[in-house]
User: Fold these one by one.
Assistant:
Number 1:
Amino acid sequence: MAVSAVGGKYTVTEDMCPYRLVLEHVTSRWGVLVLIELLDRPYRFSELRRAIGRVSEKMLTQTLQTLERDGLVHRDAKPVIPPRVDYSLTDLGREAAEQVRSLAMWTHRRMDDVEQARRAYDEART
């Protein structure tokens, strides 16, 4: 099934479709967590890594660079010793983060239903 983006310019079935790539960036495992965390306030890299937990330095760096390239995250490098870099959301990033947070909150609210569905599925298979 092909889904057209606004104006019909892109379809999600096209390889390397910009719409699809941004969707993947925003909804990736670490992208979701970065966006939600940055809704609260700007973070330094090490603070953000601790707040998210279990993310490698490499993956967090890649995620931040990807979200920065997409215009969702702002990187503010201050020319001081030691270097200080703060990450925050752009207006576009804040909009995306609010959408992602809504999905995360829905997941939290409906987790009991999901677990019940999983049990029913597993019981039907055994």
Number 2:
Amino acid sequence: MTRPVRSRPPAVKEWRLNLYLSEHDPDTTARIILDTGENVLESHAEARRNPYDPDVPEIGDELAAGRALIAMGRRLLRAADGDIKAVGADDIEDATPLWLARE
């Protein structure tokens, strides 16, 4: 007779992400603060409107926020890579880097 497999209830975590946008025409700056409860990570990005383009603040917000979110994703991937190495897991070389060397 087999016994049913007991499973643990899923762990639920909440991470808080605050995104701050500031506009100083023609520049828009995005700042992200991610609080995981154990760590706090921060990223920044900018967007600059071409002076010949129409003034549409939403576009600058979207570009700056999107770039800051991409930068935050790269920070998280670097943190995970460091944690993987810290626990002694094998390092697997990937032909496609997940972040740029200068970041």
